[in-house]
Amino acid sequence: MKRIFFIAGPWPAIIVFWLVCWSGQGFGWAAMAGAAYAAFYVCVAWRERRATRLDYGVALFFVIGLGIMLWKPGFGGLIFKSCFTTALNTTLLLTAILPMIWGAESFTAAFARRTTPPKYWDHPGFIQINVLLSLMWGGLFLLAALAGLHQSPWMQWTVPYLLIALGYPLNKWFPGYYAKRKSVSPPQPEAPTDVGATGNVTAVNPVAR
Fold first, then answer.
1. For the segment 86-133, what is each residue's pLDDT rounded down to a tens digit?
2. Is there a smaller number of Cβ atoms within 10 Å at the N or the C end of the chain?
3. CA-to-CA distance for 68 and 179, rounded, in angstroms?
4. pTM
């Protein structure tokens, strides 16, 4: 059960949000429920030393949304109703990329370390590939946020999730491609220790673990 909890990550908060909303409780209670679940997950993950910047991003999205709902309910409801995917992906983009600008490590490194021995964490191949993967994920978040601004349901919901889904094959394909092209020999990872691990030294899955 614990493994399933960590594989799901904070993303069930989105399901909780919409279930509460569709039950007729409104965006305010829905935002509170989503924020509560996301915050609970982050606290547990932090205690287990598994919290990532994307976990914080999801929690931040709902906490800020709840604050806006308490401050200006009409404006907050408009954001959740018309700009949900845009606001969510913008938050993920900022929490994933901004810290890198200030000198923090790439956000995908936290996932890659789960299947990579500590002695390789400073390996040039490990660092380079994760920086590029993080930037690529940032591009996917940006495109998803922009697509969410369109008024059609297809652009608001389907296209953003299709864009994020591109990250799955990207995680598996890019590390080997980059290592081969640059003649970098990334270290072989240890055997995966959880269901979410892919077995690749730098392959990560920020969307579902």
1. 999 999 999 999 999 998 999 999 988 887 888 888 988 889 989 999
2. N
3. 45
4. 0.82
